Amino acid sequence: MIENFFIGTDIECIKRFETIKPDDKFSEKVYTNIELEYCFKKQYPAQHLAVRFAAKEAIIKALSASGVLQVNYTDIEIRNDKNNIPTAKVNTNIMKSYKIKISLSHCEDKAIAFVLLEKVE
Tens digit of pLDDT for each residue in 60-96? Predict the structure, then answer.
């Protein structure tokens, strides 16, 4: 049934993420250590930081639409699987009732994320 599905999307300007450092307050509030390590190993960390932030925002929007209103950014971790496909792990007990799929993309100046959340009770 369609009532069991929730979507979220977000788009970010990559330029906003160019001055972020691994140890600043924003990074500590938003990203996990694994995400920061991944992003700052890249030649251009800003695009990876931006797309992960967009993913977290999209997940929070989908969860909000489903009635879940209390999720911290660091409860959400965006990783690539063994096939380099982005996946999301949300570290809350609430997520036992949901399946989550994400799609991420970025170009020169924008990063976008789309999330599909399915309630599986």
Answer: 999 999 988 789 999 999 999 999 999 999 987 778 8
d(Cα 17, Cα 100) in Å, to the nearest integer? 25
SS3 7: strand
> Per the structure block, which two tokens stand in for 76?
């959400």
Q: Where are the domains of the chain?
A: 2-119
CATH code of the domain occupying 2-119: 3.90.470.20
Query: Measuring CA to CA, which residue among 116, 113, 121, 120 is closest to residue 49?
Result: 113
pLDDT tens, residue by residue, 14-48: 999 999 999 999 999 999 999 999 999 999 999 99
